[in-house]
Structure formats: C-alpha cells, structure tokens
Design brief:
Blueprint lengths: L4 H19 L10 E8 L7 E3 L1 H11 L6 E13 L2 E11 L5 E13 L3 E12 L11
Parallel strand pairs: 1-6
Antiparallel strand pairs: 1-2, 3-4, 4-5, 5-6
C-alpha cells in the first residue's frame, strides 16, 4: 500500500519545520520535529552522534555563533518502509552569518507516534564537499 498523500505532506512539512524552529531559536519546541530519543548523527562532521532532545539542544547552544543563521531544505523524497515508518532524503543549505553557504544531505528515519504524529527518530547529516560526489571523467 502506498503512503497516503496526507502523510507524505506531513513528513515534508515536518522536515521543513526543523529549520524554522532552529533559526528562530525555538529549541524548546524541537519535540515537534524529533522523538525524545532521537539519534542525530553528525559523524561526517567529526562530531559523532547526539542522542536525545536535551543533548541536541545542548549541542546547538554549545555551537553558538557557529550555527547557520538560516537552514533551508529542499528536494525532499519520502519512501514508505512500513505504515508507521518512512525514510526521507532531503538537501539542506546552511547560510552562515558571514554569508558563506554549505550544503548537506539529510537522511531521516521518520516514525508515526500516536497523537504526536510523525517525528524524526534518526537523522544522518552528510556534508556535500565535492561536485558530483567526486565523480570525474577519468573513471
């Protein structure tokens, strides 16, 4: 059975909500996006995994001015795994205070949780560092 359009839209809006909350400094509302025991994998940045909402908020505060001033998400793709679990991939753009910009890929496991609705239970953030993922004509 295919994922209902309403669920696909809810997951896409959930992924977008992350940037709005973080950019507004509304870290106390991250439970609207993530499960309480979320695993936020920043291994590609050498920071390992951040586990739980409290640790995620603490990590954001510790980064302070090193955080992007704007998080933008695009190219969201949602794939149903089960009726209560989906896998989503999206592209993120982070704009820094000095105007520089970086690109990431978000790989999310999103679960349906009772009255809370959809929440991200695992997010892997992959830095985009080279064009074409390193592919060259020499191959």
């Amino acid at each position: 059975m295919a994922l209902a359009l309403e669920d696909r839209l809810a997951v896409t809006e959930l992924i977008a909500l992350h940037g709005h909350l973080v950019d507004a400094g509304a870290l106390d509302r991250l439970d609207e996006v993530f499960t309480h025991d979320v695993v936020y994998d920043l291994s590609d940045f050498g920071q390992g995994e951040v586990v739980g909402l409290a640790a995620l908020k603490e990590a954001a505060l510790a980064l302070g001015a090193g955080n992007p001033v704007a998080h933008h998400v695009t190219n969201v793709m949602v794939e149903e795994v089960t009726s209560d679990r989906v896998y989503a991939r999206s592209k993120g753009l982070g704009v820094m205070a000095d105007g520089s910009c970086g690109s990431v890929t978000y790989e999310d496991t999103v679960v349906r949780g009772g009255t809370a609705g959809w929440r991200i239970s695992h997010r892997r953030v992959l830095a985009r560092r080279v064009p074409l993922n390193g592919l060259s004509s020499a191959r």
